[in-house]
Amino acid sequence: MRYSGFNVITQGLFGNKGWKPAWRDAAPKAEYDAVIIGGGGHGLATAYYLAKNHGLTKVAVLEKGYLGSGNIGRNTTIVRANYFMPGNSEFYSHSLKLWESLESELNYNVMHSQRGQVVLFHSDGQRDTAVRRGNAIVNQGDDAELLTVDQLRHEFPYLDYAQTRFPIYGGLMQRRAGTARHDAVAWGYARGADQRGVDLIQNCEVTGIDIENGVVKGVQTTRGPIRAKKVGMLAAGRSGQVAALAGLRLPIESHVLQAFVTEGLKPVIDSVISFGMGHFYISQSDKGGLVFGGDIDMYASYAARGNLPMVEHVMEAGMTLMPMIGRAKVLRSWGGIMDMTPDGSPIIDKTPIDGLFVDAGWNYGGFKATPASGWCMAHLMATGQSHDVARRFRLDRFRTGHVMDEEGTGSQHNLH
């Protein structure tokens, strides 16, 4: 059934007894044209676009837990397209365009709110960098606006402009940026893929990848073997472990990234704000909670929890930027497993094994990339060719030296 205001009112009048499940609880078949490992945002989006754009409906998504139980539900919900380097810039621009029509596309409320994002700068050097980045964003065809301190004071009067250590010199604003509801994105893509015949198989862990003479033949799972002509690995922070099942070692380290949310408050922060000196970012959810985060925990781990020193670091950055939040009570924190590449940019490419594809290494950019990642991975799996906006996300660039170091921080995974 389609979702609409009329249906909401009608179901409310009749006790909400007529709603149907959003998707089927499918059982695995013996064989598929394509199998996708990972039932998060990227895996579900890939399945959806395989069916919608390429007509491939004999597809299965395999998730070892429940749909959306990984990083798609463990982020800070920011959507933006303010990247600088060629390769990243056009990709995230494409993703933002898909975000802008996603709710009507899926007939699902993903709570996409284009409330804007401002990245603050605190020195003359950072201002120069912001100007350069803003010009690159505009040349790409997206929006960027340089704000003076007076303009910032008008829009964000609660920031601490008087601090002497990190004075605020201005900010780079992207008005089309914003937030979306992370869980709803997974649910919307799951519902859309299911409607097009894709099997969404939960509690089905992949334990092996079958390869014969350099060609993928299927996967082994806790629910039995499944044959497949094509297999896509979209396991986010677990990508290295999944690739190891095929004898591959990906150039990825997995790190923990913590996020936090406070009690519900009256509306106070109406945009996404990023601190240029503390890697601190904050927005306010529709329920009123302040959602914020900072750096990764800087040590490799598969544990979806973080350490207390990083909690202290994030809180210090928040208090430095906006002391007004000091009395808000933090309700909970959580950790996501970040798949970090040496240059901070992702991988969407074939592997040396025929029929085996990988979509991984999203660092901090995974959630905002969800629509374009699914779009481009589906194109790659269906046609065997990289999509134009993802052509630079090659797996072999770390061997050839064609890296895309967006932050200019070198080849250490944890610094990105």
Question: What features would you describe in this structure?
Answer:
This protein has 416 residues and is α/β, with parallel strands linked by helices. It has helices at residues 5-13, 41-54, 88-100, 102-106, 124-140, 149-155, 182-195, 239-244, 308-321, 370-383, 397-400, and strands at residues 31-37, 59-62, 78-79, 117-121, 145-147, 170-174, 178-179, 199-201, 206-212, 215-221, 224-233, 253-264, 272-275, 280-284, 289-300, 330-340, 347-350, 356-360. The strands form three sheets. Strands 1, 2, 8, 9, 10, 11, 17 and 18 form an eight-stranded mixed sheet that branches. The protein has an eight-stranded mixed sheet with strand order 5-6-4-13-14-15-12-16. A hairpin with a 2-residue loop joins β9 (206-212) and β10. The longest helix has 17 residues, at 124-140. The chain is globular, with a radius of gyration of 21 Å. The model has no long low-confidence stretch (mean pLDDT 95).
Shape: globular
How many distinct beta strands? 18
Topology pattern, helix = H, strand = E:
HEHEEHHEHEHEEHEEEEHEEEEHEEEHH
Count the DSSP helices.
11
- The helical percent reads 25-40%
What amount of the residues lies in strands?
Answer: 25-35%
Mean pLDDT: 95
